[in-house]
Hints:
Blueprint: E1 5-10, H1 16-28, E2 33-37, H2 44-57, E3 59-66, H3 72-77, E4 84-88, H4 97-104, E5 113-114, H5 119-134, H6 138-167
Parallel strand pairs: 1-2, 1-3, 3-4, 4-5
Helix pairs in contact: 1-5, 5-6
Bound molecules: 5-O-phosphono-beta-D-ribofuranose.
Amino acid sequence: MSTPFVAVLMGSESDLSYLELTFNVLDVLKVPYETRITSAHRTPEQTREYVRDADQRGCAVFIAAAGLAAHLAGAVAAQTIKPVIGIPIQGGPLNGLDALYSTVQMPGGIPVASVAIGKAGARNAGFLAAQILALSNDDIANNIKTHREENAKGVMIANQHLQDRING
Ligand code: RP5
């Protein structure tokens, strides 16, 4: 059986700087992934074919990022029953609010789990995908726990520095 992986899709090369943050999280947590630039509007057939093929090959979670009228995550969700995480990309005259609404307002029965607009969402999409894979992968679960512990240490160290500065 093939190793479950995450597919990270983006609607345009102009989204790539945000997706680098997603790649970074998946790299740190040692989550296998592949990535494609594919558009719900500009390359609809290729998007459909890719999703169906990746689904067959063992994709466990799809991440789909798009801006403006951001239909990529919804278009992916229409082709698979694997979990789909949508990242609304910041930009355009509405600064990502259009992408958020387009991503999150899915009709009943075809869900997209949307994360926040922009950079925070791009990072959290990686964590959320990792947490889904961790349901059946103890190594990934341990990597997530270790990351959280390091995060907590960072906050405590920052707090200690603040206390030292204020209290002398
Ligand atoms: C969306 O339109 C893409 O996901 C991108 O965020 C936005 C603009 O695309 P480009 O015109 O920069 O290719 O489909």
